[in-house]
Fold:
Amino acid sequence: MPPNPPVSVVIPLFNEEESLPELYQRLRANLARFEDWEIIFVDDGSRDRSLDILTDLHRQDPRVKVISFRKNNGKSAALAVGFEAARGDYVITMDADLQDDPDEIPSLVRKLEEGWDLVSGWKKVRHDPISKTVPSKFFNRVTGIMSGLRLHDFNCGLKIYRNDVAKQLPVYGEMHRFLPALAHLDGYRVSEIPVQHHPRKYGRTKFGMSRFISGFLDLVTVIFLQKYARKPLHLFGVAGMILTLAGLLILGYLTIGWFQGIWIGNRPLFFLGILLMVFGAQSFAIGLIGEMLTRSQAERRDYSWRVRLGFDREQP
Structure:
């Protein structure tokens, strides 16, 4: 069999000082089978000793690379920077809290090599409180319906991507929850496998209930951007046509009555017709503005970092 390809493991983290040494040792044992590998830790503005520990790991093993943000920018920002820096043919993501099991890496690789572009983990037996599991099931069901991709667990941190997929996916805001859906909507082949999930060993979760509210709003954004980002007039134009047509019908009906001597100035239906016409014109205007905006290229955001270890540009 040919040797396994180079692998990059991208790990976003925030205040996980207790778990990092053990996580590194377990990753090193599982990555030994690959011809080349790297671990990219993206420190999302930690305020504990996480950066000191990562710096020591880099000194011991140059295959450990570190990017540290000056402030907390969120998991999506950490993944975006990690994807950009990853050079392996396969890119694996996982959380730093040891709930994701590094022993699952060989299974993820085997599944990807069946011809998939992205393989997501499925925490079939999940060791989280009910306050997380029940909303998560609802979230996964709604995401599957709206995206057309039926997965059991969209938000599992343990995933594997082909390098070109990871670098092409738009990861910003809170889009990390929808990376399988984004890949599916872009035409990539997406699958999932059950993975081992462990109870949190150190610290506490960094996510609250508010993530589910923002997650739903982000899902609407994903669907809109994938279907109408390059043709916004197709959405707003259709809405404008419907509203305008409804307004015209109402006003036309009232105009016939006016010619027959019926006073229409104080009828609610008259104001509804005018309102629909106004909304229709506004919808058209929004669609046209959107069409013009799609012609301009969005600027790539650069996140402020304080340390980069193991890359061309380093700051000790």
Summary: The mean pLDDT is 83. The chain is about 45% helix and 15% strand. Residues 7-228+301-309 form a domain with the Spore Coat Polysaccharide Biosynthesis Protein SpsA; Chain A fold (CATH 3.90.550.10). The two ends are 41 Å apart (CA to CA).
